[in-house]
Amino acid sequence: MHVIALAGNQNSGKTTLYNNLTGSNQHVGNFPGVTIEKKEGQLKKYKDISLVDLPGIYSLSPYTMEEVVTRDFLLKENPDLILNIVDATNIERNLYLTLQLMDLSIPMVIALNMMDEVTASGNSIDVKKLSCHLGVPVVPISASKGEGISELIDVVIKTVKEKSSPKKLDFCVGEVHKAIHSISHLIDEQAEAAGYPVRFAATKLVEGDEPTIKSLKITENQLHIIEHVVKDMEAALQTDREAALADMRYCYIEQICSETVVKKQETKEQQRSEKIDKVLTHKYFGIPIFFGIMFFIFWMTFNVIGAPLQGLLEELIGVITEITSNAMIAFDVSDWLHSLVIDGIFAGVGSVLSFLPLIVILFFFLSLLEDSGYMARVAFLMDKLLRKIGLSGRSFVPMLIGFGCSVPAIMATRTLASERDRKMTIVLTPFMSCSAKLPIYGMITVAFFPDNAAIVMIGLYIMGIIAAVISGLLLKNTIFKGEPVPFVMELPAYRIPSRRSVLIHMWEKGKDFIQRAFTVIFLGTIIIWFLQSFNWSFDMVEDSSNSILAYLGSLIAPIFIPLGFNDWRASTALITGLTAKEAVVSTLSVLTGAVTDSQLSEVMFTMFSPLSAFAFLTFVLLYMPCIAAFAATKRELGSLKYAALAALYQTVTAFIAGMLVYQIGSLFI
Amino acid sequence: MTLDSIKPGQGGVISAIGGQGLLRRRLLDMGLTPNTRVKVRKVAPMGDPIELSLRSYILTIRKDEAAKIELKEVFEECM
């Protein structure tokens, strides 16, 4: 079995190439210990060669999790070959990573992507000469058009079999060269013992790289000598170690490019991008256009396409439920089994599954935004707003989707480059009031605030945003303290998204959601069903007010006294709301025995005062999201413990906010 | 002169990168090294961040970061 590692910059077409090389037989998981996605698949037609997709990175410095993961994989897993994808339209910056990868002395092949764009614009790259200068095979390809892929596979297979490492390169000159070489001699035995390529280790020690110092067990004495060597180098170059190395690499790249690249003009795609940007990031129109696009996506997803499909799916599930139910009655199965299957599993999983069309359609639009390059512009437009709470503009889109549904919103945090931002966004997104909470707001406002319905609704949405802002400030200064990942982001040229990538993306998200519906969500709904259908002697109850759930509801009811209500029906509804937020409404009407809306309103006046009703709404707005969203949180945070902590945090926040509303309100009313 | 103080449409040649740690390293890795020509293309609608062009690609950084980039030469680039 041979392992090939696919490495390259973000926006270099890495995912498209990966999909081209592996087809659809991919295994998606996480790298150990972090929530960074690791995709693994077999090279098409070569069952004994597996391809691992590494995170898109710009450098091997050990600062971001993505860089650390890539480094660890390359150093510890000993892949047989690095397939480095290089964007030919942006070759200087892409080769920077290439030079660092070459230090690792692992056999390497360069896929020079987007060569079609280079030649179509009348520019050229002398591939043979480039390969000669770098000492590794270079294959020109166009991943999006599928050109050059079979040639690339041939070269990769040949290089793997020959095990030919990059030609030993001495692209460093002068003082840096002197420093790297004297350190190489000093540490070569330790580097070999630690499994580090000597040249890579020496270069990293010149940079002052902490992980290397630790892994090689560099002694005090050696460190002293290294520092001395570096000081001499810095004095001679009149710059510091990091700048010296970056400068050296870029100087070498400039020299190679001056001999191999002929660039008469910007590529057509770059020129087109500039024109598109004149509109989409326009000083006055940029932000309105963005909101227009988001409105369109929401409208299409939740109204035009999503809602009818959701209705259809619900109907289909209804028909299947009925058939199953009738069959079970015909076979005379026991009541509890019938109830478990129909009221528990079918009702619970069915209601969650009906979200599937929404998720698939939303991700269709989101992958268009992402793959076209527009998402980076959104980050550019919105960065200033989110910076104050310690996030970057990239988090804006997931948060906005949160107003529709927390589940795809949390799933969409995948596109965030920094793990810290991703985790923070996952915790804050459920504060954006999702559409499933609307029926609850509707029910309560009709009863208590018929004249001020709009103000109450808008107030709730704003309160959610305020909770997110305050939480952001709090998290920024406590759990997520430390240096945030700097906002230094490439704005890639706009490109037409490939149909294949979009389809694979939709398929992955849909599959992911269905898997969860049948695992975590399945379990959750069965638990709630059990609590709702049985009493303490484990007999089935006709009237759910005698169930364990109702008992638990009355047990926790007094907790809400500081929020101004103490009613077992309200607290029970909050528990069932965990399956799906709409369930709060249905539970309240079932438990109160109200048939019409006016009856329900009447009963509610015995449960709440207007002020405590608003405190109830505040709690509903902020407390932990439904099981489906919780499952997404668990998946994206990569641990049940952290997901539970996030849920606890959200619920405590909801409690405090509800209490503040009631207690402060009581002073005035 | 620092990079945050020039207007859109103007460009310059980098003389030094200030700052430290992750941020500085990232700027260097992205190709903002001494003697590199860089141009300011745009300012975001809310006044921050800014859009740069260098080494034939587009990069966006915040003004705080741009303030750490020293320029030795400033020129008006004709568009």
Structure described in brief:
The complex is a heterodimer of chains A (669) and B (79). Chain A has 31 helices and ten strands. By secondary structure, chain A is α/β, with parallel strands linked by helices.
Q: What is the 3D form of chain B?
A: globular
What is the count of DSSP helices of chain A, taking H or I runs of 4+ residues? 31
- In terms of structural class, how would the helical and strand content of chain A be classed? alpha/beta
The value of Rg of chain A in angstroms is 29 Å
The CATH topology of the domain at 2-162 in chain A is given as: Rossmann fold
Helix-strand sequence of chain B: EHEEEHE
Structural class of chain B: alpha+beta
Q: Which radius of gyration of chain B do the C-alpha atoms yield?
A: 11 Å
Helix content of chain A: 55-70%
Q: What's the pLDDT, averaged over the residues of chain A? A: 89
Oligomer: heterodimer
Distance between the termini of chain A: 74 Å
- Quick check: average pLDDT of chain B? 91
* Anisotropy-based shape of chain A: elongated
Percent of sequence in beta strands of chain B: 35-45%
Architecture of chain B in CATH? Roll
- The rounded distance between the terminal residues' Cα atoms of chain B is 22 Å
CATH topology of chain B: SH3 type barrels
Q: Tell me the helix content of chain B.
A: 10-25%
If you had to describe this structure to a student in words, what would you say it looks like?
The complex is a heterodimer of chains A (669) and B (79). Chain A is of the alpha/beta class and 669 residues long. Among the domains of chain A are: 2-162, 3-Layer(aba) Sandwich (Rossmann fold); 174-238. In chain A, α5 packs antiparallel against α11. The longest helix of chain A is centred in the C-terminal third of the chain and has 29 residues, at 640-668. The mean pLDDT of chain A is 89. Chain B has one domain (3-76): Ferrous iron transport protein A (FeoA) (SH3 type barrels), CATH 2.30.30. Chain B has 2 helices and 5 strands; from the N terminus they run βαβββαβ. In chain B, strands 4-3-2-1-5 form a 5-stranded antiparallel sheet. In chain B, β2 and β3 form a beta hairpin. The model of chain B has no long low-confidence stretch (mean pLDDT 91). Classes of the chains: A alpha/beta (669), B alpha+beta (79). At the A-B interface, α3, α11, α12, α17 and β10 of A face α1 and β4 of B. β10 (488-490) of chain A pairs antiparallel with β4 (57-61) of chain B, so a sheet runs across the interface.
